[in-house]
């Protein structure tokens, strides 16, 4: 009998950040989670090389494909990029927000992973964070 492995759909901002940086960061995060014993699907790992070769990279093009992989996954992990505006990038990313919304609608847990600290973090919203200034 095959061992059941946790399946992660790994989301990260892409179009609102340097695409090559996002690609390299998510590949490192993919390796990190695979080394922890998970099965990981990272849409940016799969699609970035195709986008660099000229395939349309707009969210509308990828949405239905990505939703099928979210259906496959046990959970969605959102990588918070280690930049000053990492949370803002997540909140402004059309793709990441759509993935989160679809995942929640289909009952998938959504977790937030701070890549720099390698720790799970609670979601913050920018308007709440600004009220504390």
Task: Quickly name the level 1 CATH class.
Answer: Alpha Beta
Low-confidence stretches: 127-133
Tell me what portion of residues adopts beta-strand conformation.
Answer: 15-25%
CATH superfamily: Hypothetical protein PA1492
Multimeric state: single chain
What is the name of the CATH architecture? Answer: 3-Layer(aba) Sandwich
**Fold-level CATH name:** Rossmann fold
Give the helix proportion (percent range): 40-55%
Total strands:
5
Structural class by secondary-structure content = alpha/beta
Number of helices: 6
Number of domains: 1
Summed over residues and divided by their number, the pLDDT gives a mean of 90
| SSE order, one letter for each helix or strand | EHEHHEHHEEH
Beginning-to-end CA distance, first to last residue:
55 Å
Which descriptor suits the 3D outline? globular
Features:
single chain; 133 residues; alpha/beta; Rossmann fold; five-stranded mixed beta sheet; 5 strands; disordered C terminus
Q: How would you describe this protein?
A:
The chain has helices at 19-35, 43-52, 59-72, 86-92, 94-105, 126-131, and strands at residues 7-11, 39-41, 75-80, 110-114, 119-121. With 133 residues, the chain is α/β, with parallel strands linked by helices. It has one domain: Hypothetical protein PA1492 (Rossmann fold), CATH 3.40.50. A five-stranded mixed sheet has the order 2-1-3-4-5, sandwiched between helices. α1 (19-35) links the parallel β1 (7-11) and β2. α3 packs parallel to α5 (94-105). The termini are far apart.
